[in-house]
Write a structure and sequence with these properties.
Blueprint (H helix, E strand, L loop, with lengths): L1 H25 L4 E12 L14 E12 L6 E14 L3 E5 L6 E4 L3 E21 L3 E21 L8 E6 L7 E11 L2 E8 L14 E9 L2
Antiparallel strand pairs: 1-2, 1-11, 2-3, 3-6, 4-5, 6-7, 7-8, 7-9, 9-10, 10-11
Length: 221
Amino acid sequence: MKKSLLLLPALLLISLMANAQLIKDRTGGKVTIGFDLFTDINTGDSYENFNLRSINQGFDTYITYNFPMAETKHTVSLGLGVSCHNYYMKNAWLSEPYNDVITFKEEPAVKKSKINLNYLDVPIELNFRIADKFKISFGAKVSFLMQSKTKTKGDVFGDGHKWELKYKDITGLESIVYGVNARVGYRCVNVFVGYQLNNSFKSGKGPKILPFSIGIGIRAF
């Protein structure tokens, strides 16, 4: 079973890259598809009675149209994508997701609890190709909140029962967030860092979440 769970993402990734390379070849390099895996490290302040987990894994996928810079191999890319961010809480859960001010309840018996935020992204990048194998990119991104939800597993009410609770459409979130990023790539593989410039929650409505993202990406070369 574990091998099957690992094999499926691998097959999906291979299929994605095969089609991504085909699309890029047919469009003369003007269209690129990419996929990233990353972890978010929160640089915001600790929130009252809990901290976020150190590793908060997420992913994104995107498609860009590449505009050549004059007669060079360098490009300016404008795109569209979706991203999924997960913020895991330690021994706490979001007990009041629809209040005017978001509150969290400390509960040592809660083993798994997270906030999930999904965005529609509009990225722009400057891509500089070096020695025809390396690429350095600098970019920015505007993200529009599409969906928010929470998921909690554990004895949240202290009654000895293992509950699984889910809530959607958390209040107090910013509908638009902004970020900057940089990438260094060799052929189809790249590593990147990103930083979100504004808080995921509105001022005074929830915790200060300013993610610094580190990850690895794959895109057609």
